[in-house]
């Protein structure tokens, strides 16, 4: 049965704990946590997920580090899972991230999945002291480094971009942290098929999503991974309601990401109580009825 995840992008920070508790009570599987480092006054390239390249937020839109948010929300829940959707990997340091990801996995009792992307803005790389050039190759090595350290024990790495002698971070997570790969380009889909435990979408139309899923299946078969578990997390912008969610499930989506209060006409900055009521209403319509069928 397909899972439902609550997207909390651009949510006021003081609402996160309350939304997590209510989402868990209502039977949602996960919270999807977005990532934004900062708002640059002038952007040098188009944002890739809107028709005109503009950003959907302003300099005053609230954001929180998703790893810190996962730890905070995990502290007030017991079964709800969390995953970054997606953390912009390219502008960060993989050794420091390994410590952070391992900490969140341990603090939440292995209720954390690491959704990663490269990052779209040159400013995020350059102003964090990281070159924008060759970012894809560097991210591939970053994933290798983080997985290596999270695996536990004394490890070393000598690569093209990162180099360190034997080290150990304790405690290692008691279960592997799943890595979900974001991105809609063919190179991103290849990365997901080759090394990911799943693929996670930005906003996408159903017909395009079907094409992506078919491509991922083709690529995974080519890498000899067709029979391994693989999640498809989707933010589909043109399939809603019982019939729409059934279509997504039939297409191969394992995790439908929704923002129920938007469906009810509430904004990102609406009161917590209104959002909680939307969570309960959505769960009654689409989660509890499916469980009883």
TrEMBL record:
Domain (Luciferase-like): residue spans on this chain: 10-232
InterPro entries listed in its UniProt record: Diverse_substr_monoxygenases, Lucif-like_OxRdtase_Rv2161c, Luciferase-like_dom, Luciferase-like_sf
GO function term, MF aspect, one: oxidoreductase activity, acting on paired donors, with incorporation or reduction of molecular oxygen
Annotated TM spans: none
Pfam families in the record: Bac_luciferase (PF00296)
NCBIfam families: F420_Rv2161c
Record protein name field: Luciferase-like domain-containing protein
Provenance organism: Rhodococcus ruber BKS 20-38
